[in-house]
Inverse folding.
């Protein structure tokens, strides 16, 4: 049994770059992949996101003089953390992790391809003005509930979830199918911000349980 047709699973950035051996590896992030594969069996609608940067991307520390990774700079659209160069278009680092096994996913949203704007969120780039088109896609398909998993809880997952909630979707983050970077308290801060805009924090068991209840009823 699957969740209703009006729900979508958004799988955020499960890429080589963010897992062990990647250029911006999040500790043990690959451990959530079996859970994500299992959750995916309970959804009809699945969207994958893929961080997809040009080499000259503004979020890369090496593209700024006298800056290093994890410094923060001010840009027109607000503060920006500088990252190690990661997920460059067409590289192995940008490919989906080989353990991710969701062949039925229907849409891949590539984000961060504008050289001068970062995009943590699957919905809106970091300037909060440039849309990725995902909200329109989901609304045209009459999808009103989004369930979010992936990497990293405190950046791309959180920003995706907050935008989804602000755009009027019922929004759930399946917390045990995410992994965080947790830079100077960023994880706790991200949860506070998500909960404040109405994002619901759920665990995988409750989703699997709910779908098996539906099956038996
Ligand atoms: Zn990135």
């Amino acid at each position: 049994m699957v969740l209703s047709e009006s729900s979508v699973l958004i799988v955020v950035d499960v890429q080589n770059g963010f897992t062990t051996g990647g250029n911006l590896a999040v500790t043990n992030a690959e451990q959530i992949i079996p859970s994500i594969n299992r959750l995916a069996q309970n959804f009809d609608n699945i969207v994958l996101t893929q961080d997809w940067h040009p080499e000259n991307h503004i979020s890369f520390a090496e593209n700024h003089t006298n800056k290093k990774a994890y410094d923060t700079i001010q840009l027109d659209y607000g503060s920006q953390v500088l990252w190690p160069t990661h997920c460059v278009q067409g590289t192995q680092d940008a490919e989906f992790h080989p353990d991710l096994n969701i062949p039925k996913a229907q849409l891949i949203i590539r984000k961060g391809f504008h050289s001068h704007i970062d995009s943590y969120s699957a919905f809106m780039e970091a300037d909060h003005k440039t849309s990725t088109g995902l909200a329109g896609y989901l609304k045209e398909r009459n999808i009103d509930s989004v369930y979010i998993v992936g990497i990293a809880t405190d950046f791309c997952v959180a920003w995706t979830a907050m935008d989804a909630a602000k755009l009027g979707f019922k929004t759930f983050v399946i917390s045990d199918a995410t992994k965080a970077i947790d830079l100077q308290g960023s994880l706790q801060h991200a949860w506070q911000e998500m909960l404040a805009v109405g994002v619901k924090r759920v665990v995988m068991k409750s989703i699997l349980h709910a779908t098996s209840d539906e099956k038996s009823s």
Summary: Residues 5 and 82 are 39 Å apart (CA to CA). The beta strands are 7-12, 45-51, 72-75, 78-81, 107-111, 145-151, 170-179, 200-202.
